[in-house]
Structures are given as structure tokens and as C-alpha cells.
Amino acid sequence: MTDKSSHFDTRAIHAGQDFDPTTGAVIPPVYLTSTFVQKGIGQLRNGYEYGRASNPTRTALQDLLASLEGGTYGLSFASGLAAEDALLRAALKPGDHVVLGNDVYGGTHRLINRIHGAWGITNTVVDMSNLFEVQSALKKGSTKILWIETPSNPLMKISDIAELSDIGHQAGAIVVVDNTFASPALQQPLALGADVVVHSTTKYLGGHSDVIGGALVLNDEELAEQVAFIQFAAGAVSGPMDAWLTIRGIKTLSPRAERHSRNAQAIAEHLVGNPAVERVYYPGLPDHPGHELARQQMSAFGGMLSLAIKGGAKAARRFAESTVLFQLAESLGGVESLVNYPSEMTHASVRGTELEVPDNIVRLSVGIESVEDLIADLDAALVRSQKRAK
Ligand SMILES: *Cc1c(COP(=O)(O)O)cnc(C)c1O
Question: Going by DSSP bridges, is the β-strand pair 304-309/361-365 parallel, antiparallel, or unpaired?
């Protein structure tokens, strides 16, 4: 229904979404089936055999994801970490080395360090925004993956995807970008030179906090086949209902991303100078160290921001427990606003490592509610954060 020349907003609604040829249903059905009837032994209908291998609803999502990231192959998994695990197993063997940022998603560090570490994979953690540090960590011959996450979590550091792709390729590494925070609506890593895009589709792609999922998009045929084989053989596939919910979410990704970004920018600008806030971390602020780079490689600055609260851990905790519209929960990227206290929630698994997050940081996932209401909620909670701090 769409070709590669269609614009992003058109592909988000039509890629992989041909109407049902039997009935004309505008929306491709959810194929809630575990297996497929064969015409004769081994004679499959359109290649469908068994639900772990493939399902038409999952195919529709995979085609959509590949189209949005501008890649050839899309694969949809049971979760973001399941996608990461399949990629690591496909690309690495014991003795191989991974270079990753000191602010990657905590679960990514845990997976590489503790799960794959136990199978002989080594890693070096670096400041990904420092190109010299990255260069000296890459070991030609043994570094097989350079793992980038930008904007990063929770301090919104911006890393240069194009530069890092060059550096990684010179060392013979596969360059992976976790594009969860930006989403393909705001940033397209493959076009900037990366080899593989990883997503937790749980976040902005799904967009409604109602489904867990993950994805990989890539161009290399051999690597795609290896990943697909691991997905089939180990089984971390997304179910048809999950795939369908994700497709449904993606249709509004573009307008959501615009609104998330606009709300977050207004909130960031409003909070600068608030006496209860030591620092606002948002790439849309001109004094953010990654602002210029973000302007080049992203089409907007996204819906995630973090605050350093004056008064340390006590005040930060009080703030996170005082907001009303911003509900206290892990995760991000949904239409509703969330507040998170990283050092004891999302980043508890990296306490005591070089990924530890300062205990006065709170992270906001800015939703698409009225920005006036969101600002009023934050202002009131900031006042409460300081009340009993003295
Ligand atoms: C949530 C998240 C993941 C993990 O995804 P799950 O769907 O929770 O498995 C990976 N990377 C980033 C940046 C995330 O926010």
C-alpha cells in the first residue's frame, strides 16, 4: 500500500497495513491462532506454519517498524530486553567484547554484564559523549558491538550517532542504537550510519502504557537471518494481540511525538530558575551540552526530562511522591505523564556500578495532557519538596 517514497506520517498509518483481502476490513485482523492448516504436508499458505515462527499480525508490525526506521528487516519481540538478548546472542561469541555507555538503560547493562558476562562476553563502560574515550575502549578484533543510547537515561546526554558509527566501523564493530527515547519519529539512526536499531516498543511506539514489546530493525541480511533464527529457536516472540496493540499505537506516533516534545519544552523552560530545582536536564534547552548535536540529529527534543532537586534525596523523594497528574511509576513514553525516582526505581539494578544515578534526580515522562495542568502539578510538588526539608 505504501512505498519508500511516502512520507513518515503516511507510512506510520499504512506500511504493512493492507486491508483484509477476504472481507475488505480496513484494519488487518488480529490473527489469534497458534497454528495454520497446511494444504498438503509441508504445503504452507503464504509461508505460515506455526505461531512461534510467524503470524500475520506480527508480520504487519514488523513491516511497519522496518519502514519507519528506514531498514530492510524488522523483527518484533516479547520485550525490549528479549530483542536485545537475541541480538547479542546472534552477534557475539564467548571472548567477544562490547563497548557501551555509562548511562545506558540499567536492564541493558545487567543483560550484557551479568547474563552475557557469565558466558564469556566482556564489556567496557564509557562516557559515550567523549569520542576519545570511546576510541580507546574499542579493541580491534575483539570488540564486536558498540552500544549507543541517545538521548540517554536519565540525564539526557546526547551522543553523536554519525561520528560513533564511523569510529565503531573502523574498529570492526557492529553499531547498535537504542532508539527508545527518541522513537523513529524524531531520530533515524540507520540513516546516520548505525547498523541496528533496538526498541522497547513498550514506550513511545506503543505509546499507551498497555503493552510490553521490543523490536530490532537492520539492513544486513546475514545478521537478520541469525537473529530471526534465534527468535524462532528460543521463542521470545510478540503475541498477536500485543503486536496489534503496538500497531494501533504507532498510527498516532507522529502527532504524539510532536505534542510530547512541545509539552516537555514548555515544562523545561518553566522550571529553569525555580528555587527548588538545581538543574533541568533537557536537550531542548540551549545550555544543555548536547543541544546543538540534538538539533542536528533529531527533529525535536522528545518528551523526557530530568530534574536535580535541591535538598538531596529527601527532597527528591518527597517531590516524586507529591505529584498527582505525574503518577509515580516506572516506564515512559505513554500519553499519560509519569514521574520516576531512578536511584531506587528504574536504576536500582545499577547502584554501586559506574552507572549509578545521583539520589537527587527525578525523571519525568511528559505526557500529552494540558501543559498548564502539568505545570501546576509540578509547581505544587516542588513547593512540597522543600517544605519539611529544612
Ligand atoms: C524500557 C527500556 C528497555 C527495555 O525494554 P522492555 O520492553 O522493558 O524489555 C530498553 N531500553 C530502553 C531505553 C528502555 O527505556
Answer: antiparallel
